[in-house]
């Protein structure tokens, strides 16, 4: 039976070797059959088919019906894929947690934890990483936004909110996207954060837990203050003293509620 390469790869990702994948594909057509029938349809040697079917039963791809001769029935693809997707997702999440812990423990030990990041795509990616590491709070001053950034930040900040992370955003009254003036407060209305509108310069800042931060700068077109993407640069900083200082300044501005524009 011929199938798309992606389907074949998916079966292998779920733990089936070549013979097992061929056997499962044959059984999806046969639905049920004897070892001899399955061997013929799958072109798997009969000397191997019994062991293969036994192993596949252990993995949950095949059910064995007792009798003479034994019959083997396929477990539906819907059940197989749902079960394995759940298992793979759990494995990936566990791997992500373990590797992230290793990464964060090592990166904090580097002698000069300040990096320059160029271009909107890489800057946004780093912002999302910072938000994902938040345990208590995120403070953002958004003097401007890149194209597509608001949607990505909304999704990541909403995920953080489910973990109990408090996010506060000082947003400029508007940002220019595709040469259109976009109301920042309106665009951020779906975000799980407290958003206030301030008259702030065209600079962006994000501080996480008073432990790490990034400042983002860009040049703007003189005609309509549109971001010039090639000029955008982020200064990612993991010096706690500096991050704490910026967090404190943010806190004082937030408490004084000034200078604010409704």
CATH class of the largest domain: Alpha Beta
Largest sheet: 7 strands, mixed
Physical arrangement of strands within the biggest beta sheet = 4-12-11-10-5-6-9
- Structural category is alpha+beta
Mean pLDDT: 89
What CATH calls the topology of the largest domain is: Endonuclease, Chain A
Domain Transcription regulator TrmB N-terminal: 11-77
Coiled coil: 78-105
InterPro entries: TrmB-like (IPR051797), Tscrpt_reg_TrmB_N (IPR002831), WH-like_DNA-bd_sf (IPR036388), WH_DNA-bd_sf (IPR036390)
Protein name: TrmB family transcriptional regulator
Verbal overview:
It is a single chain. The chain is built from nine helices and twelve strands. The protein has a seven-stranded mixed beta sheet, sandwiched between helices. A three-stranded antiparallel beta sheet has the order 1-3-2. The chain has a two-stranded antiparallel ribbon with strand order 7-8. It folds into two domains: 75 residues, Winged helix-like DNA-binding domain superfamily/Winged helix DNA-binding domain (Arc Repressor Mutant, subunit A); 144 residues, Endonuclease, Chain A (2-Layer Sandwich). The relative contact order is 0.10. The protein is of the alpha+beta class and 262 residues long. The N and C termini lie far apart (65 Å). Helix 2 crosses helix 3. The longest helix is centred in the middle third of the chain and has 31 residues. It holds the Pfam family TrmB.
């Amino acid at each position: 039976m011929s199938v798309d390469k992606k389907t074949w790869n998916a079966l292998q990702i779920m733990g089936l070797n070549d013979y097992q994948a061929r056997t499962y594909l044959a059984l999806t057509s046969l639905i049920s059959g004897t070892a001899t029938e399955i061997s013929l349809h799958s072109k798997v040697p009969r000397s191997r088919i019994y062991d293969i079917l036994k192993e596949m039963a252990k993995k949950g791809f095949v059910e064995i019906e007792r009798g003479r001769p034994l019959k083997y029935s396929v477990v539906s693809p819907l059940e197989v894929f749902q079960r394995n997707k759940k298992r793979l997702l759990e494995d990936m999440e566990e791997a992500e947690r373990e590797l992230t812990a290793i990464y964060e423990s090592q990166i904090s030990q580097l002698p000069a934890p300040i990096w320059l990041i160029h271009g909107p795509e890489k800057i946004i990616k780093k912002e999302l990483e910072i938000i994902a590491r938040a345990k208590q709070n995120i403070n953002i001053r958004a003097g401007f936004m890149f194209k597509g950034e608001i949607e990505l930040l909304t999704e990541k900040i909403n995920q953080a909110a489910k973990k109990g992370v408090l996010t506060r955003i000082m947003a400029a009254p508007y940002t220019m996207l595709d040469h259109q003036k976009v109301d920042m407060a309106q665009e951020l209305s779906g975000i799980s954060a407290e958003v206030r509108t301030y008259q702030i310069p065209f600079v962006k800042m994000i501080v996480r837990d008073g432990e790490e931060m990034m400042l983002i700068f860009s040049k703007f077109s003189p005609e309509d203050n549109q971001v010039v993407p090639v000029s955008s640069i982020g200064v990612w900083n993991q010096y706690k003293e500096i991050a704490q200082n910026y967090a404190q300044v943010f806190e004082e501005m937030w408490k004084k509620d000034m200078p604010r524009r409704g």
